[in-house]
Design goal:
Largest sheet: 9 strands, antiparallel
Number of helices: 0
Number of strands: 11
Helix content: under 10%
Radius of gyration: 15 Å
């Protein structure tokens, strides 16, 4: 027998309140991507530069680990890959979720010592689920 595991809780964006401010999250935007069924892409402005990302989801209903959910930048022109990870909820309004997020850079799947911290937001109408690290 095997034991399943998860450190994620899934919420509808409308069910978030001020108690979620400061919590780490991953935003499932567009269509629900549970189990990697649908992989969406999104454009996010990072310090004035538009970057396009796609969802990396590794959750199957049995093992769902927060650190395995992130966004990967499309069109990195060098050997370094860029991942949007560790988003923290800063503020909630009736129509937006404001976050502080971290871009981490990887060479051959190994992290390098550079990160970019930035603030951004999502329209709640474009969010399928909010995955909260617990």
């Amino acid at each position: 027998m095997a034991q399943d595991g998860s450190n994620i809780k899934y919420y509808e964006p409308i069910n978030l309140d001020s108690s979620f401010i400061g919590k780490y999250c991953h935003i499932d935007f567009g269509e629900e991507s549970f189990g990697g069924r649908i992989i969406d892409t999104i454009e996010i402005k990072v310090k004035g530069q538009k970057m396009r990302f796609y969802e990396h989801r590794k959750d199957n209903g049995f093992n769902n680990w927060f650190n395995e959910q992130y966004l990967i930048r499309i069109e990195d022109k060098n050997l370094v890959s860029t991942r949007l990870q560790n988003s923290r909820i800063d503020c909630l309004t009736t129509d937006k979720i404001y976050l502080t997020s971290v871009l981490r850079y990887y060479a051959n799947e190994s992290p390098i010592d550079t990160i970019t911290v930035f603030q951004h937001w999502y329209d709640q109408k474009n969010i399928s689920k909010v995955l909260i690290k617990n």
